[in-house]
Amino acid sequence: MFLLRHRPVVFILVGSAAALVHLLTVILLVETMHLVPLVANVGGWLCAFGVSYGGHQLLTFADHGAPVLRSANRFFLLSAAGFAINESAYAVLLHTSQVPYQLLLAIILVCVAAATYLLSRRWAFAGIRP
User: Fold this and answer.
1) In the prediction, which pLDDT does 39 show?
2) Which domain holds residue 107?
3) How many other CB atoms sit within 10 Å of the CB of residue 55?
């Protein structure tokens, strides 16, 4: 019951875990495999997607009642759209800013999270509530 009453907090916790996976994956790929940050960002998003969907499916929106396949497809589309915004903003900022790539990515991940929450709740995980 705690999870359902505190849905925004749970969303932030799950999102923070996914963002941390995303950020650490990017840093790992840049520092060890010498990928450019924009390419590494794709790998970071793919790794973080599983953490994000699983956490939101099992915790944040556990009571949603939507079919799993439908919510997975919708969340993937939502996540991919968020990633497109993320990657576009990241590309612009990497080329126009002197801020370290790690900090830029962290800022972008936080900015995209608010829109993701609203769209997840209203569309991706919308279903029959008990």
Assistant:
1) 96
2) 2-124
3) 19
